[in-house]
Amino acid sequence: MKATIKWVDGAMFLGESGSGHSVVMDGPADHGGRNMGVRPMEMLLLGLGGCTSFDVMSILTKQRQPVTNCVAELEAERADAVPAVFTSIHVHFKVTGKGLKESSVERAVKLSAEKYCSASIMLEQGGVKITHSFEVIETE
């Protein structure tokens, strides 16, 4: 896996993934940025959310669960000192569908957290406390 980060100006950078997709990263105005893109640490949090969401949906699809929507809400705490690393992250899944088995959603979240999500497992090994919760929302 490869990526390239190119400086644009001020605190703005353009990141390009090895698969050819681009994203703008920028800082706030008080740090030389123009607030035109996500912050690098936000990108890291988004990566974790995407990684675990991908796992959960993949597992639920293989279990043939009738999912109509899946939202992961992440909340992170950072250290007050430099480096302002993540100290804890909570991931809350809202999984919607008709006739979803709560046990299947619970298993999918647990498997992602403990076995499949490379991002969360890597961050945990680095000392970040990561917790998970979920809710099943029944549709008509």
Chain-wise SSE layout:
Layout: E1 3-9, E2 12-17, E3 22-25, H1 40-62, E4 67-78, E5 86-97, H2 102-116, H3 118-125, E6 129-138
Parallel strand pairs: 5-6
Antiparallel strand pairs: 1-2, 2-3, 4-5
Question: Can you summarize this structure?
Answer:
InterPro entries: KH_dom-like_a/b, OsmC/Ohr_fam, OsmC/Ohrsf. The chain is of the alpha+beta class and 140 residues long. Helix content is 33%, strand content 36%.
Helix content: 25-40%
Shape: elongated
Please give the largest β-sheet. Answer: 3 strands, antiparallel
C-alpha termini separation: 42 Å
The total domain count is 2
Assembly type of the chains comes to single chain
Uncertain segments are: none
Which terms summarize this structure?
2 domains; 33% helix; three-stranded mixed sheet; alpha+beta; 140 residues; GMP Synthetase, Chain A, domain 3
What does this protein look like?
The chain has helices spanning about 40-60, 100-115, 120-125, and strands at about 5-10, 10-15, 20-25, 65-80, 85-95, 130-140. The protein is α+β, with helices and mostly antiparallel strands and about 140 residues long. It folds into 2 domains: about 1-40, N-terminal domain of TfIIb (Single Sheet); about 40-140, 2-Layer Sandwich (GMP Synthetase, Chain A, domain 3). It has a 3-stranded antiparallel sheet with strand order 1-2-3, with no helix packed on it. Strands 4-5-6 form a 3-stranded mixed sheet, with helices on one face. A hairpin with a 7-residue loop joins strand 4 (about 65-80) and strand 5 (about 85-95). The model has no long low-confidence stretch (mean pLDDT about 95).
